[in-house]
Amino acid sequence: MSADKVLIVEDDSSIGMVVRSALEAEGIEVDVCESASARDAALAGNRYDLMLTDVVLKDRDGISSLEDVIAQWPDMPIIIMSAQNTLDTAVRASEINAFEYFPKPFDLDELVLAVKQGIEKRKADSQSESSTLLEATMPMVGRSPAMQDVYRMVARLLRNDLTALILGESGTGKELVAEAIHNLGHRKTGPFVAVNMAAIPSELIEAELFGHEKGAFTGAVGQGIGRFEQAQGGTLFLDEIGDMPYHAQTRLLRTLQSGTISRIGGKASIRLDVRIIAATNQDLEALIAEGKFREDLYYRLNVVPVHLPPLRARPEDIGLLTRHFLGLAASEGLPTKQIDEDAISRLTQMPWRGNVRELKNFVYRLTLTAREDCISEATVLQISGPGEAEPAISGAACSFEAAVGQFMIEQRQRGHGRERIYARALAAFEKPLLQSIMQQARGNQLQAAAMLGINRNTLRKKLNDYGLVGNKLGETRR
């Protein structure tokens, strides 16, 4: 694999030499030039993963002369360095969408770190740009922002063996994501072994995972090779990890820590070469609080979390998914069908509590039972079972649910514990709720209190606490 390559454009040769030495010490290949014309010549003959440039160059301004560079190499991150430490310089760097801006003098370690991050971002963006390949291979379908986040995370996992924890409701496609990470990654030539923890009796799960020697327990008439050994050189997918018995969690933790296993009844230690991907539809942090899941195992598994959105959080993908499943059904010998836009609109309004899996099953049912070649809204209503055709929760509710989920993710990312979640959530969501209600009530506190179902005095206190009493809400004191 070729080394990452960076271009430094700096008219101060001493600074250029210092930065070059620091980057080369990190295994990065570096070219240095001192003018915009030399920069353009270097770019014409080479492909760089990132460019560092000073603002003041010998022949031209380092920022204003970047317009053509950005047009020709839009995917190349640019880091601006400048001794002109003014707000105007920072604003100009922001206007050209510079990856980072460093006023001189700068911390060399911070600059090197930013260069590494810029290179990794370019690689990740390059992977996400090929989302068509991901969609075709996963097979997962969707172009919503929520699914693009999933694709980007999958792309970042392809070149390493970091442990991933896939989180999502039942039917969102957790195993498909695990298969994509394996099939598109560097372990694709090895085996992909999936184990559903909820499907294995508690007393057999350790033998299933780690294997056993002959006579290790009643019924062990021969040696058994466990799933870890079966996955050597490939990927082991531990589905429904939240259902794993507590006693087996301890052994799994020890395996992840040591990178070795020993079969039940055996003494030999077997070195593992296996990537671990786990998945669950449960709240593992809640299970930890209940004493049902080991906290140390959770942190071992949750190295890279991948959050799969429920279908109701990406309704714009339902049309794509429906047509995709119609094509799959036809390829499996079912009648070839089309579907009209009114029918798609109706499908988009349905709740899909079983997520993508439920939608797929319903589309197959439509394909088999619909009489017309082009499925209509009337057929959707006719074939859907009781409650299926009821509208899903409103877009506002979907947005609120998504906001709560994002709030919880941000809390964990910021290192907040599980304490005082209710108070923090109220502080985040109560103020915008009160603002919205007061606007709808045109500042009338009595009407707003009635809409909220609370006492007017309670409302007044909350408005005062949040500083929402004033003309900006058009408030009246009736």
From TrEMBL:
Domain Response regulatory: start-end pairs: 5-119
Compartmental location: Cytoplasm
Primary location recorded for the protein, binned into one broad class: cytoplasm
Domain Sigma-54 factor interaction: 140-368
Keyword DNA-binding: yes
Modified residues (4-aspartylphosphate): D54
UniProt keyword annotations, A-Z: Activator, ATP-binding, Cytoplasm, DNA-binding, Nitrogen fixation, Nucleotide-binding, Phosphoprotein, Repressor, Transcription, Transcription regulation, Two-component regulatory system
InterPro entries: AAA+_ATPase (IPR003593), AAA_lid_NorR (IPR058031), CheY-like_superfamily (IPR011006), Homeodomain-like_sf (IPR009057), HTH_Fis (IPR002197), P-loop_NTPase (IPR027417), Sig_transdc_resp-reg_receiver (IPR001789), Sigma_54_int (IPR002078)
Listed SMART domains: AAA (SM00382), REC (SM00448)
Record has Glycoprotein as a keyword: no
Biological function: Member of the two-component regulatory system NtrB/NtrC, which controls expression of the nitrogen-regulated (ntr) genes in response to nitrogen limitation. Phosphorylated NtrC binds directly to DNA and stimulates the formation of open promoter-sigma54-RNA polymerase complexes.
Descriptive protein name: DNA-binding transcriptional regulator NtrC
Species this protein is from: Sphingorhabdus buctiana
Upper classification of the organism: Bacteria, Pseudomonadati, Pseudomonadota, Alphaproteobacteria, Sphingomonadales
